[in-house]
Amino acid sequence: MSTEHAIIDGFTTLKFVYEWSKVSKMGIKIHSDKINCFTFDDFGTIFPPTSDNRLSKIVNDDHDFAEMVARRALINVYRRKNNGRLRPCLLTVPVNLRDKIDFPRYKNSFGNFAIEVPVKFIPGETGMELQDILLLLKDVIQKTNTSFEKSSDDIYTLASKFHEEILEWEENEQVDVCMASSLCGFPINEADFGWGKPCLTSLGLRSSDMFWLYDTECGTGIVVPAELKKDYMEMFGCDKEFFIQSKI
């Protein structure tokens, strides 16, 4: 299945795959001869099992670890090596508007109904401790939710305002830009097409600096893939706190 993010968001994609897996597993008995259903009968021969253990991912049993990695990723982007100076940083966070708009028809709407919210880190104004960053994220998202709840009739204007604000910061060469996205709570690991739930999940690659959060298969931890510039990623290797609290 191939999709364009401009017309379909994570909610729609994962909801569709989850419902598709249920139909595939249970089967379609009514007019099944008229429906061309994709099957996975030969899936094992197309993708044979492998014992390659070189693949690794960051997993921890505690949700607190995800916050630590998020903070470290932000600081790596936030801090430049130019004489130790700090630069302004823009973090964009996607927000699902379906539960924020007071229109029932939007609750399970199909398509792209999410916006990117700008979170700004300014040297000398933004605290660098974990609690400072988390409080800033929480405050920005809460204010965004409130704004859309009060302006259900003018969604486009509000969305355009955020978009223009992000573009203005992205065009500034003195600003570092990073994106974060949380898929925690989505039924990623519940999609069972008939041969069991997935044992490995990958969200692909992005050209921009980004990190994700999504649930582990067991549901007790969080996976945090991070795709940052090489010099930013190397900072993880020098962080003792990171290796103490993580599983590679």
Structure in words:
InterPro entries: CAT-like_dom_sf. Keywords: Acyltransferase, Transferase. One of its GO terms (molecular function) is acyltransferase activity. This is Anthocyanin acyltransferase. Belongs to the plant acyltransferase family. With 248 residues, the protein is an alpha/beta fold. The protein has one domain (10-245): Chloramphenicol Acetyltransferase. The protein is built from 7 helices and 7 strands; from the N terminus they run ααβαββααββββαα. Strands 1, 2, 3, 4, 5, 6 and 7 form a 7-stranded mixed beta sheet that branches. Helix 3 (64-78) crosses helix 6. The longest helix has 21 residues, at 130-150. The protein is globular.
Summarize the helices and strands and which ones pair or pack.
Elements: H1 10-26, H2 43-46, E1 59-60, H3 64-78, E2 89-96, E3 114-121, H4 130-150, H5 155-170, E4 176-182, E5 210-215, E6 222-223, E7 226-227, H6 230-237, H7 240-245
Parallel strand pairs: 2-4, 4-5
Antiparallel strand pairs: 1-6, 2-3, 5-6, 5-7
Helix pairs in contact: 3-6
